[in-house]
Amino acid sequence: MLRALTEADLPLYRALGVEDQTALLEAALARRQTTIREAVLATLEGFDVRDYLVRAGMAADEAVRLRDRISR
User: Fold this and answer.
1) CA proximity to 35, closest of 44, 25, 45
2) How far apart are CA 61 and CA 5, in angstroms?
3) Helices vs. strands in the chain: H and E counts, helices first
């Protein structure tokens, strides 16, 4: 579950030059009448992790072994 930044988080983000974007994200989700979960699922729909990793330089057999290892 996404949470709003807390006061404890802000110094790190400010040091990186990132302001709290919680209100901006909530407004965008409301305009689109969606949720964070639905937005993430829509983004991942059709995403082929193995293909992405192979195109990024991972050997195909390594991608298969990685999948097998993390899906246990």
Assistant:
1) 25
2) 40
3) 5, 0
Q: Are 2 and 36 in contact (CB under 8 A)?
A: yes
Residue pointed to by tokens 């192979």: 54
Residue 23: inside a domain, yes or no?
yes
Structural contact between residues 66 and 53, judged by C-beta atoms closer than 8 angstroms: yes
Q: Is residue 60 part of a domain?
A: no
Give the global pTM.
0.53
Number of structural domains in the chain: 1
Its sign, for the CA torsion 63, 66, 71, 72, is: positive
Burial of 59 (0-12, 13-18, 19+ CB in 10 A): exposed
pLDDT tens, 19-38?
A: 878 889 899 999 999 998 99
Which pairs with CB-CB distance under 8 Å and at least 24 residues apart come from 34-42? 36/1, 36/2
